[in-house]
């Protein structure tokens, strides 16, 4: 199977760039490359840019949530917090409707707090008209703190980015450091992830660009209003906590294997991993999306969400991500000790489906 050629066919249509201008794909399996990670880079960093390399940096979106959850679990191991701690312990004079919500409810998406990134909310309207505007975590939380909970906490699964903005606030309150500092010290430096950066506002202003790294330009193909629009100057401040990292596929592969590969416990102890994998399985009552509340069930079904990580009945652990102009996924398959990561610089669902098809074909050969 010529993986490089198949990936090139996704990026180039009739010899021309289409949608995403570049992608990076890393896979690691005992049955490939003597068990060492193999990275494939395809296309250009922008429409008229240089070729994608191992040092090309992609926004990873909600895959950042797993990093935040790791920090929270490390704080628990240090007895600085408990997953059972309610919001009121940290902010007794703020967020009264959220006082009884526990940290675990934030991380496993069962709090019932509305999602500030949904269309029509105050912040989403403000952001869509001012894509380069810096928006603070306080501004996000204050804009939605008086909205009623969508359901009784703990009874439904509902994917809300607001949960992770509030979790970020708790981490910063407890440590008296920024989340950026904690992720850098606790994860990035420990794993030597030299191509992973926390972005507070504008990527181009916060990463020193040289011959060794370059920020990919993103292209929006998700919103019809912004079809094909460049997103390199969009602020990541609105993704504060839920989706604020940029990285490469090699670094993300190292990260996810550090969590779930059996011989690798560099970040979390086996007990903490067990807590991370304490899944709430949910019934998909509406459809296959995660934008509506879905009932938590006691009996085992296919899909579930733990503390910043997805699972399924095949013991596959993953998190995907999307920002304006970027798509990502990192996954670990326990059965075969296989991991893979893909990153693309366009929110183009058609190309992503083609990429997933190639990955599934490759994985089938490893069984």
Automatic annotation (TrEMBL):
Keyword check for tRNA processing: no
Pfam families: Beta-lactamase (PF00144)
UniProt key word Hydrolase: yes
Positions of the Beta-lactamase-related domain: 33-353
Single GO MF descriptor: hydrolase activity
UniProt entry keywords in alphabetical sequence: Hydrolase
PANTHER family, A to Z: D-ALANYL-D-ALANINE CARBOXYPEPTIDASE (PTHR46825:SF7), D-ALANYL-D-ALANINE-CARBOXYPEPTIDASE/ENDOPEPTIDASE AMPH (PTHR46825)
Protein name: Serine hydrolase
Domain of life: Bacteria
Species of origin: Silvanigrella paludirubra
